[in-house]
Amino acid sequence: QLRLRSALALVTGAGSGIGRAVCERLACEGASVAACDLDAAAARETVRLLGSPESEEGAPGGKHAVFQADVSEARAVGRLLEQVQARFSRPPSVVVSCAGITRDEFLLHMSEEDWDRVVAVNLKGIFLVTQAAAQALVASGRHGSIINISSIIGKVGNLGQTNYAASKAGVIGLTQTVAKELGRHGIRCNSVLPGFIATPMTQKVPQKVIDKVTGMIPMGHMGSPEDVANVVAFLASEDSGYITGASVEVTGGLFM
Ligand code: NAD
C-alpha cells in the first residue's frame, strides 16, 4: 500500500546524501517530489534517479520537479514556495528540510563568518522553509507534516562544532514550538536526529575518527541515508498521525 499516494513533498538538500534518499523513499510511497537544492544539477540528478520518464525539469505534467534555492535567503525561499505551488497547483503537504552544512573549527579559533554561515543555512534556513510552507498550508486550509533534519550533535555537542551543534539544537526547539502553534491547524512538525550516517558530508571525516565513533555505536556500524529516509517516510505518513513535536533519534544507539 502506498502511504503517500496523493502527497506533494518538498525536500531541501535533495541533491545529495540524506535528502536524495528521502526523495527516493517518498517517491516509492507514491508522493510527487519537489526536489530543491542549492546545486541545481545535483537535484536534477536526484529527479533522474526517481526514474519516472516524464520527470524532466520543467516538463508539464511530470510527476516530480527540480527547484534551485539557497534556503538561507528569505526571498529565494519565498520564490521557491511560489514556484512549487505554480508547478503543482497546491502547496506541499510534506516538507522535509535536509539542507545542511558543516564548517568545523574549535571554539577558540572559530570565525564569525563560519558561525554565521552554518547558523544561516542549518537554522535560519529551516525557519524560512517551515514558515513559508506553513503559511501556504494554513492559507489553503490543508493539513501537513513538516520534518526537520536536526542531528544527535544538537543534543550532545561535538568537538569543533559549536556552530553546528547550536544550529541543530535550535532546530529541535523551533520544531517543538511549531508543533505547539500549528497542531490546531492539522499541521504536525517533528525533527529527526541522525547519528553517524555515510554520506558525502561524513566522507571527509578521517578514517581514525570513523573507527573511533563506529566503536561507540551499539549497532556496530554507520547508518545509511536510507535508514534516515525510512523514518522520514513514517513521519510524513498518517502512520505517525498522532506524533508531533518529537525528536526521533536514528543513531544505531549512539549517545542514547
Ligand atoms: P550532504 O552534504 O550529502 O547533503 C547536503 C545537501 O544540502 C547538498 O546537496 C547541498 O548542496 C545542500 N545545501 C547546502 N547548503 C544549501 C543551501 N544553502 N540551500 C539549499 N541546499 C543546500 O549532507 P547529508 O549528510 O546528506 O546531510 C543532510 C542533513 O542531515 C544535514 O542537515 C545534516 O546536518 C544532517 N545530518 C547528517 C548526518 C550525517 O552523519 N551525514 C548526521 C546528522 C545530521
Give a structural overview.
Belongs to the short-chain dehydrogenases/reductases (SDR) family. InterPro entries: KR_dom, NAD(P)-bd_dom_sf, Sc_DH/Rdtase_CS, SDR_fam. Keywords: Fatty acid biosynthesis, Fatty acid metabolism, Lipid biosynthesis, Lipid metabolism, Mitochondrion, NAD, Oxidoreductase, Phosphoprotein, Steroid biosynthesis. With about 260 residues, the chain is an alpha/beta fold. About 45% of the residues lie in helices and about 15% in strands. The chain has nine helices and seven strands, in the order E-H-E-H-E-H-E-H-E-H-H-E-H-H-H-E. Strands 3-2-1-4-5-6-7 form a seven-stranded parallel sheet, sandwiched between helices. Strand 1, helix 1 and strand 2 form a beta-alpha-beta unit. Helix 1 packs across helix 9 (about 225-235) and helix 3 (about 75-90) packs parallel to helix 4 (about 110-140).
Q: What order do the SSEs take from the amino end to the carboxyl end, as H and E?
A: EHEHEHEHEHHEHHHE
CATH class: Alpha Beta
Q: Helix/strand-derived class?
A: alpha/beta
What is the 3D form? globular
What about the largest sheet?
Answer: 7 strands, parallel
CATH architecture: 3-Layer(aba) Sandwich
**CATH H-level superfamily:** NAD(P)-binding Rossmann-like Domain
What is the helix tally? 9
**Strand residue percentage:** 5-15%
Total domains: 1
